[in-house]
Amino acid sequence: MVSSVKGTFDLFYPEVEKWQTIEENARKIFHLFGYTEIRTPILEHTELFVRSVGSETDIVSKEMYTFVDKKGRSLTLRPENTAPAMRSVIEHRLYELPKNQRLYYIGPQFRYERPQKGRYRQFHQIGIELINDRTPYAEFEGIIVAKELLNSLGIGQIKVKLNSVGCPECRPHYVEILRKYLLDREKELCLDCQKRISLNPLRVLDCKVPSCQKIIEEAPTIGSHLCVLCEDHLQKLREYLEESDLFYELDQRLVRGLDYYVKNVFEITSPLLGAQDAVLGGGRYDGLLKSLGGPDLPSFGWALGVERLSLIAQFGEKEKKDVYIAWLGEKGFKVALKLGFLLRGNNIPAILEGEERSLKNSLKRADKLGVNIVVIIGEDEIKGGLLTLKNLKSGEQFAVSLNEVPVFILNGLRS
Ligand code: HAM
To answer: Taking Cα atoms as reference points, which of 324, 316, 309, 332 lies closest to residue 384?
Structure first.
């Protein structure tokens, strides 16, 4: 037997229905906020991620599925969707169309990470990107969109971790201060972090190696080194959040694992998730479009992990109106066929099978299929002209004519 690839999984009933609910809710809420969908290819030129996510990030330096194609081009299975979305925005000049300035995506991403609960090599993100908005309201609204989605899935109390990572004006100064501090404690850091000191010291703050944690905790924070613009931008967002019912916490060590961020970044975590507790993360990335050869348009976005979300979401029981059509004899089968079309034409899911079964076996089969209502078309029904509807939950039975069956079901088994 050939099994699935490590860190990937198959999705099927009943779990797949949870994913469908998450996706339906997301689409509905994004639509309410004016977002339209973008679908980009899973394959991109490797250079796209090197130039956007950053060559010194874990994602690019260790985790990408990169290969050379038959023509010698270096291609990568996308590890995230912001860079591909921005590539598309530039390629098709989507920034010229207001309807394409609020984008959302739903799809698989690939990172070669060590698999564990909530962490996979093929995982799925739902995300939004808002182009051409420099106001802190962009972040506030983006966080509200996330909150609406999480609330719609029964996740009530959410905690937003917030920080500013500065901008090209103020960050370099802070990076130098951080570098000096890290150099003093170099020997206590893991080998990766020792390399990061010269290449990209901010990435040390992301390190999960236990021995680095104390040094990270005691490291100088960016807060007191922000320029006036970054400071104001953060304060304004905090004001918006304080006026809302959202609970947030300033976390000065939050730097996010991607290099394109500037100013405000945030994450939403859940204590129910254990080690991989970030459900959703994002931030502002004002310079990204320009650095990829597009116009200089400030932008913001976030993405959530569907696997992690489905672990903490609450899914209510949906009222089911599915029908199993039980039939006997050739005449019974003909009526069953008609009923099948009639029910589906009225948006009532109906299962009809070609194999003739005894009534007892049909009822057993319906039960195993998780269907609530069985319509019986046996000899008596054919003779009398009324079909028997059986509610499997309550055991109640009703005699209804063929044409009235859909209305009877839609009325909750009432005429
Ligand atoms: P990210 O923080 O790398 O950000 O990923 C966003 C979310 O994807 C995480 O919070 C987590 O729920 C999920 N995730 C990441 N890696 C894995 C994995 N290996 N297995 C399962 N879930 C995972 C980004 O990707 C940015 N593009 C977000 C963004 C959009 N920033 C601006 N716009």
So the answer is: 332
CA of 127 to the centre of ligand 1 (A): 9
Q: How far is it, in rounded angstroms, from Cα 411 to Cα 321?
A: 10
DSSP letter at 360 equals H
Ligand 1 pocket member 260 (CB < 6 A):
no
Q: Where are the beta strands (DSSP E) in 22-70?
A: 36-37, 43-45, 65-68
Q: Are 145 and 128 in contact (CB under 8 A)?
A: yes
The per-residue pLDDT for range 60-92, each reduced to its tens digit, is 999 999 999 999 999 999 999 999 999 999 999
Q: Which alpha helices (H) appear in 244-357, and where do they start and end?
A: 288-291, 306-312, 329-345
Q: Kindly report the backbone phi and psi dihedral angles of residue 167, in degrees, each rounded to the nearest multiple of 5, phi listed first.
A: -140, 180
pTM for the structure as a whole: 0.94
Model confidence pLDDT, tens digit, residues 17-50 = 999 999 999 999 999 999 999 999 999 999 999 9
Strand, helix or coil at 79? coil
Between strands 247-250 and 159-164, the pairing is parallel
Q: DSSP assignment, residue 116?
A: B
Residues of the chain with pLDDT under 50: none
Q: Which residue has the tokens 């099978």?
A: 353
Q: How far is CA 246 from the centre of its chain?
A: 21
| 125 close to ligand 1 (CB < 6 Angstrom) | yes
Mutual orientation of helices 191-199 and 171-184 as an angle, nearest 10°? 140
Ligand 1 proximity of 141 Cβ (cutoff 6 Å): no
**How far apart, in whole angstroms, are the C-alpha atoms of residue 31 and residue 183?**
49
Q: Is residue 282 in contact with ligand 1, taking CB distance under 6 Å? A: yes
Report d(CA 2, CA 198) in Å as an integer.
Answer: 45
Please give the pLDDT value at position 276: 84
For ligand 1, say whether the CB of 286 is within 6 Å of any of its atoms: no
Q: What's the confidence (pLDDT) of residue 320?
A: 81
CB 143 within 8 A of CB 311: no
Instruction: Return the pLDDT at 319.
Output: 76
Burial (0-12, 13-18, 19+ Cβ within 10 Å), 403: exposed
